[in-house]
Amino acid sequence: MGTLSCCLLLAMALLGPRAAAARKCDLQGQWRNEMGSNMTLSALDAAGTFSGSYHTAVAATNKQIVVSPLQGAQQHPGAKGQPTFGFTVQWQFSDSTTAFVGQCFMDRRGKETLETTWLLREEVPSRRDTWKATR
């Protein structure tokens, strides 16, 4: 029995990195960024769309920051292990919307990381002010 369990443990150890590499990023769940913002994403539906909420830790406003809804989509759900995605957040405490695009990466140990880029558009009084409306 000792030999069998030793071989089983060795086989599990040898298959571990491959199993982690074969796993796919799963966007569903809770995420936290380096600035302290929190995001919760629902499970993907068959079309690859998802919803959730975003609580930012950083905002240029005097208003109270509150949790805001988000809607998004993942490219080719289930096809590849490190998918691209995009989502928008409709801020509930300001007259602005942010669009995020990114990709989910998984390291050898199975740790998932989202790398994103964002654009925030705030409402301005006229087209003349449009140059300062996007960050």
Automatic annotation (TrEMBL):
Disulfide bonds join 25-104. Residues 1-22 form the signal peptide. It comes from the Eukaryota. GO terms for molecular function: biotin binding. One of its GO terms (cellular component) is extracellular region. Pfam families: Avidin (PF01382). It is found in: Secreted. InterPro entries: Avidin, Avidin-like_sf, Avidin/str, Avidin/Streptavidin-rel. Keywords: Biotin, Disulfide bond, Glycoprotein, Secreted, Signal. Its main location: secreted. Gene3D superfamilies: Avidin-like (2.40.128.30). Transmembrane segments: none annotated. Homotetramer. Belongs to the avidin/streptavidin family. Forms a strong non-covalent specific complex with biotin. This is Avidin.
